[in-house]
Amino acid sequence: MNPLTDNRRHITRRALLGRTAAGVGTAALAYLLGGDSLLAAPTSPTQSSPKVLGGLPGLPHFAPKAKRVIYLFQNGAPSHVDLFDYKPTLKKWHGKEIPAEIQMGARLSTMTSGQKAKPVLSEITKFAQHGKSAAWVSDFLPETAKIADDLCFIKSMHTGAVNHAPAITFFLTGAEQPGRPSMGSWLTYGLGSTSENLPAFVVMTSRDKEASCGQIFYDFYWGSGFLPSKYQGVKFRGSGDPVLYLSNPDGMSSQIRRGMLDDIAKLNELKLDDFGDPEIASRISQYEMAYKMQTSVPELTDFSKESAETLTMYGPDVKRQGSYAYNCLMARRLIERGVRFVQLMHAGWDQHRNLNTQLKIQCNDTDAPSAALVTDLKQRGLLEDTLVIWGGEFGRTPFLQGDINDRTQWGRDHHPYAFTLWATGGGIKRGQSYGQTDDFGHNVVANGVDVHDFQATMLRLLGIDHEKLTFKFQGRYFRLTDVSGRVVSDLIA
User: Fold this and answer.
1) Model confidence over 46-72: pLDDT tens digits?
2) Please, are residues 232 and 179 in contact by the beta-carbon 8 Å criterion?
3) In whole angstroms, what is the distance from residue 421 CA to residue 158 CA?
4) DSSP state of 46
5) Exposed, middle or buried, 113 (CB in 10 Å: 0-12/13-18/19+)?
6) 377: domain range?
7) Residues in CB range of 125: below 8 A, 6 or more apart
8) Using H for helix, E for strand and C for coil, what is the string for 415-437?
9) Are 152 and 207 contained in the same domain?
10) Does residue 279 sit in the same domain as residue 310?
11) What global pTM score does this model have?
């Protein structure tokens, strides 16, 4: 038998694909990288039109109103009926069973699905109207109330997920099941980066000091899914070095480390030439980014040049690494340096049995920093092209979870059928409250906005047609909005 023929007969599938993929893979890689080099080209974040690194040809599809996004995600679901969606009917019906025609057999979590009584629970806060827009805001959010005219309150949000992880995944990736690319990944894949020395997509997490709920920050909330891993979010840690291994090991100089990285890059480039695997290109670029971050991150985290007025505005927790206030100021500093998408996630809003105590604590921790971020961006001329989003994965029930006679255990269950989030900057029509719920805040009755509608609108503000930003995977074209979604033009200035 011919030994060459016998060798081919025994060749593994992996080796075959590796040997034959170089030509096609290299062409695909060039498309994915949008013609950019493997190492980032120099750019200045202070330029009026900074050079875009990567991105797809032809994007943006039309002139963008927003260039970057800061998403203040409130894990656990803030109670819309206690904070934004004022319903006097709740006080009139307090303690009485919610009408069956309002609830309409709605699916609930297991925590209240078997609860025999569902008495209406009045708001535990006081509401007032604020600004020229006369927006209703709870007294638990006094700083947010001061900037009401800069905000667009979307009061008709609704979703299909009734539990936290699927609902958060749906908001951030367009599907309830893990495995799809997150918003930030889609944006950096489509639009590229404007920062040489920092990742295009950065994530920071925080939680209430009381650790009142067991919210978990899963990595797939900022994962790249089936996109190359260079587009996944880079998580900054809440203690120590924001990114691991920023410091050189003892005995290793910067020159030695630079030489090691250059040698590793050459070896990876040889493999890239052989296989054309985009993940090898991701590895090369991420090693280089890690080296650049040794210089850029210490400067980023140095607040010494921030004015006393700015630090005071963000609140007393602003210098505590890992706090929500610290992360909000970091978000502003990141987008100043060209970062495309900043995702802040703050857990602690899941008030099932501690609404009367924990809701106020949670508002105290997040109110001033959120408002300060908006004010800070506005003062620096950054709000016009920075889209800021504040909201959770769903709302809370207008009826009580627990016993109406035990005030210490009052709570509200998950409520996907109607809730509120707010947005500002980046082309959002500010100073309006959009959409309407019924008298109990239970169901949307006008101008409903579902999750895919919201995602489509966000992409439109960034100059992207949500139906055209796609990626072919396992034989079909995927997009952030899956197979639905409409742009809500009334939200756009």
Assistant:
1) 445 678 889 999 999 999 999 999 999
2) no
3) 10
4) T
5) exposed
6) 63-242+302-491
7) 82, 83, 138, 139, 140, 359
8) ECCCEEEEEECCCECCCEEECEE
9) yes
10) no
11) 0.87
